[in-house]
Amino acid sequence: MPQFDSTIKHLAEGVKGFTAAAATKNIEGWEATLEKVDSPAAKTIVKDLEALKKHLHADKQDGEAIRKLMAKLGKETVAMAKKTEGKDAEKTQALGEALSHAAEHTEDAGKQAKA
Predict the structure, then answer these.
(1) CB-based contacts of 73: which residues, under 8 Å, 6+ apart?
(2) The dihedral sign for the CA sequence 91, 82, 64, 51
(3) CA dihedral angle for residue 57, residue 51, residue 7, residue 41, rounded to 10 degrees
(4) Per-residue pLDDT of the chain (115 residues; tens, 9 = 90+)
């Protein structure tokens, strides 16, 4: 799964710097990769990635819905990592943690903006 490092890098830089076009390209790469994995967890993640793309391209983006999807994807990815073997397990775990962190960071930024 070659997208690990790229995705983790983008998430670490902050989701605000990740344009919808760049995010979509990245998401489509993950969908193509995960569609080859025969597991219910991968299929759930693909459905959630599709929902995330729709939110990113909506006329009016719902930041809270996007944050919740990212948090859900983070949890799902970490859970999938625990069932993954080999070198991809560590990278999958790191990706899940990066998604969760990005969702938390986005939530914190929203709370600060409201304060």
Answers:
(1) 45, 48, 49, 52, 96, 99
(2) positive
(3) -170
(4) 557 888 888 788 776 667 888 888 989 999 998 888 888 999 999 999 999 999 999 999 898 999 999 999 999 999 999 988 887 888 889 999 999 998 887 654 434 333 3
* Cβ count within 10 A of residue 11: 24
Domain boundaries, the chain: 4-114
Q: Which residues contact 32 (CB under 8 A, 6 or more apart)?
A: none
In this structure, are residues 74 and 31 in contact, taking their beta carbons and an 8 Å threshold?
no
In this prediction the pTM is 0.83
Cα atoms in the Cβ-side hemisphere of radius 13 Å centred on 53: 16
